[in-house]
Amino acid sequence: MMEKTDNLEEQRPDLVKSPVKPPEKILAIDTSSVAGSIALIQDGSVTDELTVGKAGRHSEWLLPAIEEFLKGCKLDISEVDLFAAGNGPGSFTGLRIGVSTLKGLAWALSRPVIGVSTLEALAMNIKGQDALICPVFDARKGQVYTAFFILKHGCLERVTPDVAVNPEEISGLLAGTGLLGESVPLIFIGHGLSVYGELIKAEIDGSSFAEEGLWDVSAGNIGLLASSKFGEAVTPVELLPTYRRPSEAEFKRNSR
């Protein structure tokens, strides 16, 4: 009789921890905010993308939308080689739903999964110019999720890790990068600007804001990041949301 185990890899040895070559087909999703998106990446390019503005409850629309999206792409879900999600930071509920949905699909098909930074995906919306880029999400409770990236000659590089900080601390993070003297524009991007934009402009000279139409995270960018980082793919049980700070429940529990 086979001994029962709670270890996923022992139960499902057919699960591949990481692809040995770039996956041909990647299904990517983002549920990190009130909007949502789904994308198909084939051979390193975004071939189809669906954006759901103000999607509402992600638990209600996501699975039916994935089914309809794949039908429109004339692709069976069994043909997907890798599943990718924006795993944070962002809305706690949205991230949980997106990651758990993706894990369920990958588990059923014995496919690997990968989570990528939503801030990095958002920074990818800036194209066509060298720039120092700072994505900003409203993290609630008077904080923002943010990081710095530099785009040079079409290549985006991370400068600082994703963090949750008070918006007044962004100027200190910028000073710590050592890039204040760079002769490239400083561009802020993201819906956190609708809350803290005036404060940022007042505190950081020379800051500019990306147009509002670029403030949403794109599942297409998540898929492209997944394609470039495919060696970091994991089994479904290993993929977890990255919150960057305690949840509301943890705040309440710790304050007792």
TrEMBL record:
Pfam families reported for this sequence:
TsaD
Q: What is this protein called?
A: tRNA threonylcarbamoyladenosine biosynthesis protein TsaB
Cellular component terms, GO, for this chain's entry? cytosol
Domain named Gcp-like: residues? 57-199
| Xref: CDD domains | ASKHA_NBD_TsaB
> Which GO BP terms apply?
tRNA threonylcarbamoyladenosine modification
